[in-house]
């Protein structure tokens, strides 16, 4: 029921009414309107516009009050509030049927009632399967909430309750997330009393609201649906090796508890908390590709594991400082989870050792790491060519201050290379080998016996 | 005599913080130099499994190698020598394109073979000098590596059909050229200054020692890569289609392959 009052009817003087006359505009000619007017027949969804003129044949301004009541009709062009003497005021009424039926409405002009008649052209009704109520033109068809990646299908019926066969020439679906129609090819003829069906599918790709349209010839229906972002499956941080130790290259994978139904992203962040007093970080602890300590995590729909920095696994280094490396995995809509690798303090590990006989000296060089930063005692034991320890060949050195000085300035973590030079006068040809024992707060370590080379 | 020596040590023993040859007694361990993903030359510090890249010391690198004490690098138009600190020692103009390098066992003398000009340059005694090479290129040959087995000889490792050959040439006017097939060796291949060969069959890396014994390192490797010496015992493996860089430890008993950092600050 549409009711529209254009002006303040209660204020109209009765004397003015008789001065007004209503006409309908037919092209360029005008015809006086009687008590009823047929606006014509139009297809459902289409509009017929009827132009009216209200003429004032008097010699004073006449207030104009226009109202309309009746489904399918609406005043579209607003008349002026007054009609000047010997002048006209114009307004228009649109007729837009939404179902196949005959329509009528009352147009009231300053108290004069005019019956407006209209008719919808014969077209098949559109109903949802399982419903007997035809959809009105412009009606909204909801597909409900559907998980991202899943689908919801609706079946529509086109029914002909008319006496003649009807033809549907065009059937289209538009809008992201909506697809179809399937099950019916146009043009299609529908015989008297017959129905045909077709399907429209809603497949959301994100957790947002979707809207589309179904158009049956010139009738448009609104399609709506809500995408529901399925939660990402539980993800786990898995280390290739769970043994925490310094100077290791390890890697991480992120398997999922089940195949993911949705795409997702997140981050894998790495943090290091040294257990060595006064040490704040070890720059060698890092991912081996991409940003040093923060990698992008991606999950593809259907995948059973995440990618890290675009790779199926991410390699990282454990550095040469005792402490705890913590990885934090943060995924969309999931609580962050952490997994840690503890690097325990260890005795000094030597990676290389060489001893060289030079003119006037013996040089012993070795490299390794002290992940406690507490190296102190060095004990060098020299052996003769028969592998017998020389009686005065044990040299004990407290190198704690030198190591403290080095560790306080280096950017190499606990890694170090040390060159010990033993000046000697006289022949060193009888000295065949040397061992080195190094001590830190976690214990002592002894290097394999090193042959002294020329 | 023995006791005299021992007494001398004790009396004369010094544990550095004093300096030896201008180098601190305790320093970050240096593993050599690598060419990073941006074609910059950078020192590598650390240990096996724990690598730290230092700041760039040269850019626009086409080829490079480091013996442990001496480095050679090739840009598009020049050949340069650098020391263990990354300091430029000398350079000379050469033909464009890549070069192959080889070092003497001591690491102080080196050869460079410039592919595009089929020319050989020697680094000896602190200077470059061109050398005559008696190698006549064949279109079917592809030079894969250079070797410097002794002070009087240079070898080119070439791919000829399905086989890799070692062609040896005298460095002076005296001597004879020879060639031998390196059976079982697959490209890419690198001849280390120790005489060991590093090559790549499917699914890994093999280090062939001078006594013909082999150690295989299983690894998942890039589809296309090159090998360069980054120290006496280390070889850089460069992914030719990406930024990934690896380090192969070729030292006897310590063989392994590691990924070099290619990270960048976030």
Please tell me the overall pLDDT of chain B. Answer: 86
User: Which secondary-structure class do the elements of chain B indicate?
Assistant: mainly beta
> In percent, how helical is the residue content of chain A?
under 10%
Architecture per CATH nomenclature, i.e. the level-2 architecture of chain B: 6 Propeller
- Going by CATH, the homologous superfamily of the largest domain in chain A would be Immunoglobulins
Highest-level CATH class of chain B? Mainly Beta
Q: What distance separates the N and C termini of chain A?
A: 111 Å
Q: What fold name goes in the CATH topology slot of the largest domain in chain A?
A: Immunoglobulin-like
For the structure shown, list the relevant keywords.
heterodimer, A: Immunoglobulin-like, Immunoglobulin-like, 4 domains, 8-stranded mixed sheet, 39 strands, disordered N terminus, B: 266 residues, Neuraminidase, 4-stranded antiparallel sheet, 4% helix, globular
Layout: helices, strands, pairs:
The complex is a heterodimer of chains A (454) and B (266).
Chain A: E1 4-5, E2 20-26, E3 29-32, E4 36-42, E5 48-56, E6 62-63, E7 66-69, E8 73-77, E9 82-83, E10 87-95, E11 102-109, E12 112-120, E13 125-128, E14 140-147, E15 152-159, E16 166-168, E17 171-174, E18 178-182, E19 188-190, E20 195-202, E21 209-216, E22 219-228, E23 238-239, E24 249-255, E25 264-274, E26 289-291, E27 294-299, E28 305-308, E29 314-317, E30 323-331, E31 337-343, E32 349-358, E33 361-369, E34 377-384, E35 389-398, H1 400-409, E36 415-423, E37 431-440, E38 443-446, E39 450-453
Parallel strand pairs in A: 4-12, 14-22, 32-39
Antiparallel strand pairs in A: 1-7, 2-3, 2-5, 5-10, 6-9, 7-11, 8-10, 11-12, 13-15, 15-20, 16-19, 17-21, 18-20, 21-22, 23-24, 24-28, 24-29, 25-27, 25-30, 27-28, 30-31, 32-33, 33-36, 34-35, 34-37, 37-38, 37-39
Chain B: H1 2-12, E1 14-15, E2 26-27, E3 30-35, E4 41-47, E5 50-53, E6 63-66, E7 70-74, E8 78-83, E9 88-93, E10 99-103, E11 110-114, E12 119-124, E13 127-131, E14 141-150, E15 153-160, E16 163-170, E17 178-181, E18 189-191, E19 197-199, E20 204-208, E21 214-218, E22 225-229, E23 234-239, E24 245-249, E25 256-260, E26 262-264
Antiparallel strand pairs in B: 3-4, 4-5, 6-7, 7-8, 8-9, 10-11, 11-12, 12-13, 14-15, 15-16, 16-17, 18-19, 19-20, 20-21, 22-23, 23-24, 24-25
């Amino acid at each position: 029921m549409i009711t529209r009052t254009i002006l303040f009817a209660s204020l109209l003087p009765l004397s003015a009414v008789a001065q007004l006359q209503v006409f309908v505009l037919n092209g360029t000619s005008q015809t006086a309107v009687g008590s009823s007017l047929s606006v014509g027949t139009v297809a459902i969804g289409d509009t017929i516009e009827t132009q009216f003129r209200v003429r004032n044949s008097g010699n004073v301004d006449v207030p104009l009050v226009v109202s309309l009541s009746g489904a399918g009709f609406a005043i579209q062009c607003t008349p002026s509030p007054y009609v000047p003497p010997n002048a006209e005021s114009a307004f228009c009424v649109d007729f837009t049927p939404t179902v196949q039926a005959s329509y009528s409405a009352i147009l009231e002009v300053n108290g004069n009632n005019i019956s407006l008649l209209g008719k919808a052209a014969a077209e098949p009704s559109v109903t949802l399967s399982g419903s007997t109520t035809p959809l009105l033109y412009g009606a909204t068809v909801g597909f409900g909430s559907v998980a991202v990646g899943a689908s919801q299908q609706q079946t529509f019926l086109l029914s002909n309750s008319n006496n003649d066969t009807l033809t549907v020439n065009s059937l289209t679906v538009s809008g992201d997330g909506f697809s179809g129609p399937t099950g019916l090819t146009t043009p299609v003829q529908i015989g008297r009393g017959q129905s045909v069906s077709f399907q429209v599918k809603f497949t959301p790709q994100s957790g947002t609201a979707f809207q589309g349209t179904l158009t049956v010839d010139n009738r448009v229906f609104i399609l709506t649906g809500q995408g529901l972002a399925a939660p990402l499956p539980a993800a786990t941080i898995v280390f290739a090796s769970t043994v925490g130790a310094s100077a290791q290259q390890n890697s991480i994978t992120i398997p999922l508890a089940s195949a993911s139904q949705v795409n997702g992203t997140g981050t894998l962040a790495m943090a290091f908390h040294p257990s060595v007093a006064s040490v704040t970080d070890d720059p060698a602890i890092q991912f081996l590709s991409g940003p040093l300590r923060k990698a992008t995590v991606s999950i593809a729909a259907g995948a059973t594991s995440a990618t890290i920095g675009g790779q199926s696994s991410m390699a990282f280094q454990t550095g040469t400082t005792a402490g705890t490396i913590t990885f934090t995995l943060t995924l969309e809509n999931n609580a962050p989870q952490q997994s840690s690798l503890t690097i325990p303090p260890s005795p000094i590990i030597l990676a290389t050792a060489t001893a060289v006989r030079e003119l006037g000296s013996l040089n012993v060089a070795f490299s390794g790491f002290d992940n406690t930063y507490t190296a102190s005692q060095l004990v060098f034991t020299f052996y003769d060519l028969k592998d017998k320890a020389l009686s005065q060949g044990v040299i004990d050195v407290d190198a704690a201050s030198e190591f403290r000085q080095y560790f306080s300035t280096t950017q190499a973590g606990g890694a170090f290379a040390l060159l010990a030079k033993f000046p000697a006068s006289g022949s060193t040809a009888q000295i065949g080998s040397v061992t080195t024992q190094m001590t830190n707060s976690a214990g002592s370590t002894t290097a394999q016996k090193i042959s002294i080379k020329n | 005599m023995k006791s005299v020596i021992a007494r001398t040590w004790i009396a004369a023993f010094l544990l550095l913080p004093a300096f030896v040859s201008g180098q601190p007694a305790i320093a970050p361990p240096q593993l050599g130099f690598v060419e990073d993903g941006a074609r910059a030359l950078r020192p590598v510090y650390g240990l096996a499994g724990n690598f730290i890249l230092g700041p760039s010391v040269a850019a626009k690198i086409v080829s490079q190698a480091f013996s442990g004490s001496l480095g050679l690098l090739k840009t598009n138009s020049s050949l340069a020598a650098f020391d263990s600190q990354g300091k430029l020692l000398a350079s000379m103009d050469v033909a464009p394109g890549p070069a192959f390098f080889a070092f003497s066992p001591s690491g102080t003398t080196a050869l460079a073979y410039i592919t595009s000009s089929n020319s050989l340059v020697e680094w000896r005694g602190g200077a470059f000098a061109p050398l005559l090479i008696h190698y006549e290129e064949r279109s079917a040959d592809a030079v894969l590596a250079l070797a410097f087995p002794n002070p009087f000889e240079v070898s080119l490792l070439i791919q000829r059909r399905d086989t890799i050959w070692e062609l040896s040439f005298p460095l002076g006017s005296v001597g004879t050229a020879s060639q031998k097939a390196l059976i079982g060796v697959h490209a890419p291949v690198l001849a280390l200054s120790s005489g060991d060969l590093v090559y790549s069959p499917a699914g890994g890396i093999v280090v062939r020692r001078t006594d013909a014994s082999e150690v295989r390192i299983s690894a998942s490797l890039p589809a296309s890569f090159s090998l360069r010496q980054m120290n006496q015992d280390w070889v850089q493996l460069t992914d030719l289609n990406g930024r990934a860089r690896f380090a192969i430890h070729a030292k006897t008993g310590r063989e392994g392959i590691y990924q070099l950092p290619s990270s960048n600050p976030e």
